[in-house]
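Is this the right way to post structure tokens for a design question? Let me know if I should format differently. Anyway, here goes:
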């Protein structure tokens, strides 16, 4: 195997792994969305089947609108509709929209371009569903300075029951409590059920064509762990899963919403297509029996906000899995923890990326050194290989045989430059997904022209027609790749030499579209690699000259 083929083998192996990882993330089998039951729940405890007509919106999917109750907290700007007490609109104060001008809208019922609402309701004995009309004493609620808790109370009443739906907010928390207080004025006992669902469109308006990420349903319990459900799969089959624990929600790039029931409350997770390209992900649970004249309450939580690891871990077990690092989570999670720790020290995510890159280079220094040493030795043999190629001409078999003999004589392992790099590839892929998935880097500035590490570098603007951002970091990365190519052994085949020169340009074009934080990592990694490779090349070259000098004196 000549030098060029060795390098191509490494590059294409890395490319194949990246493609396979992306394919894996997109096509990994998600939850089996046919009706299923958890074997850990005795059949005598199974819930009644879901009343589709009750919990699903009308088939024409025109949500009725009542009065709007506006809620302002330190983290949210929220609109609650008096019909159903739905959360119809939710803005995140501390996160900006993609245009970096407006606040990020996570939930919205406008249907242009997004439809995404949080609904709850009760089933049985004329209890209020998400279609019932509630009343409220106020239309505006504000979490004032110095106030740590805010309750928004909605009321429903008929001749048999009196229901209060209380939506509570705490300062500094993305967990929203939803509590039902049910008073039975009827003559007989009632056994209500409660449902909590997130209704979302097919997500097509939020998809990124350049760096595709998952958007769809997800659930977690101890038996099945974390499962994702594509909206396309919801269209084909309904999910019906009995469990004693866990949550269900909707996840997207950087953000998540999930209904979290307390403790070991028996529950049924469900998904269904409720209208064309509109899907529901929810949970149904049976509440305790309420005797005549008795009042009982039941509370659950809605997490709705950014995928901040600390916040997710506080909210519920398994919710941190919504930050999806794919099959290399066991490597990516510790990498993020180190990155986060470094950020606490330097208070700059770009600086943290640079220092993490340095740490990774130090960790893999012995492996990189072994790789670069092998390539430096091959570099010293290039003139001899070129002479051999000219000597044997078109007789490739003899050339290969002579080349292998030369490797044995000089005690050089051509695979020695490849294997150490292959060992490092899983770490590189893990860091790629960490930098792609960390909401902490979203709109995080580095310095100068880099205002958002999660967005492409656009220092020189957008190329008209192709809509391609032109940034300085990808250009620097391309230059660094050219320098690395010059430090590598020169290929003996002219076609391979041309291919080696084209590759940095091709990679740079791809990296024009990549987030600046990821390109920053590659630039620093390449610069450090160049320094290490140059030092080793110099050392090996000096040793080769000394060997020739000793041979000449003898």
């Amino acid at each position: 195997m000549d030098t060029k083929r060795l390098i191509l083998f490494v590059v294409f192996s890395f490319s194949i792994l990246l493609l396979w990882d992306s394919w894996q993330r997109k096509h990994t089998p998600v939850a089996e969305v046919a009706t299923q039951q958890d074997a850990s729940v005795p059949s005598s405890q199974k819930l009644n089947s879901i009343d589709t007509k009750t919990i699903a919106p009308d088939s024409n999917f025109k949500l009725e609108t009542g009065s709007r109750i506006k809620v302002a907290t330190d983290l949210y700007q929220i609109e609650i509709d008096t019909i159903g007490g739905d959360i119809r609109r939710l803005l995140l104060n501390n996160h900006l929209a993609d245009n970096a001008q407006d606040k990020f809208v996570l939930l919205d019922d406008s249907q242009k371009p997004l439809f995404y609402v949080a609904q709850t309701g009760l089933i049985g004995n004329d209890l209020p569903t998400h279609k019932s009309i509630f009343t409220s004493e106020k239309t505006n609620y504000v979490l004032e300075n110095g106030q740590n808790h805010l309750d928004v109370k909605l009321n429903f009443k008929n001749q048999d029951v009196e229901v209060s739906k209380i939506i509570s907010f705490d300062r500094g928390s993305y967990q929203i409590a939803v509590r039902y207080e049910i008073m039975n004025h009827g003559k007989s006992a009632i056994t209500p059920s409660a449902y909590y669902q997130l209704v979302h469109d097919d997500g097509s308006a939020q998809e990124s064509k350049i760096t595709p990420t998952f958007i769809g349903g997800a659930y977690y319990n101890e038996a099945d762990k974390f499962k994702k459900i594509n909206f396309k799969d919801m269209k084909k089959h309904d999910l019906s899963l009995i469990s004693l624990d866990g949550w269900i929600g909707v996840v997207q790039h950087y953000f998540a919403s999930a209904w979290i029931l307390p403790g070991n409350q028996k529950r049924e997770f469900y998904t269904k297509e409720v209208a064309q390209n509109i899907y529901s992900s929810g949970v149904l649970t049976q509440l305790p029996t309420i005797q005549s004249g008795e009042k009982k309450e039941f509370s659950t939580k809605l997490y709705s906000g950014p995928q901040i690891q600390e916040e997710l871990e506080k909210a519920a077990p398994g919710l941190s899995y919504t930050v999806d690092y794919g099959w290399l989570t066991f490597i990516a999670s510790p990498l993020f923890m180190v990155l986060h720790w470094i950020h606490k020290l330097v208070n700059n995510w770009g600086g943290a990326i640079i220092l993490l890159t340095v740490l990774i280079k130090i960790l893999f220094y012995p492996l990189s050194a072994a790789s670069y040493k092998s390539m430096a030795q091959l570099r010293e043999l290039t003139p001899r290989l070129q002479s051999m190629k000219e000597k044997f001409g078109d007789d490739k078999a003899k050339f290969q045989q002579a080349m292998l003999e030369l490797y044995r004589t000089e005690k050089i392992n051509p695979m020695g430059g490849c294997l150490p790099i292959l060992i490092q590839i899983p770490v590189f892929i893990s860091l790629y997904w960490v930098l792609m998935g960390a909401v902490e880097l979203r709109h995080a500035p580095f310095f100068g022209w880099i205002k958002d590490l999660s967005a492409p570098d656009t220092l020189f603007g957008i190329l008209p027609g192709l809509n391609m951002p032109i940034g300085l970091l990808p250009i620097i990365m391309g230059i660094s790749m050219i320098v690395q190519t010059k430090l590598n052994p020169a290929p003996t085949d002219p076609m391979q030499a041309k291919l080696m020169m084209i590759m940095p340009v091709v990679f740079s074009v791809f990296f024009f579209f990549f987030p600046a934080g990821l390109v920053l990592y590659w630039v620093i990694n390449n610069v450090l690699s160049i320094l290490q490779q140059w030092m080793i090349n110099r050392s090996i070259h000096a040793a080769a000259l000394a060997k020739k000098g000793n041979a000449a004196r003898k």
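Format looks fine. Someone answered above. Worth noting: The mean pLDDT is 83. The two ends are 33 Å apart (CA to CA).
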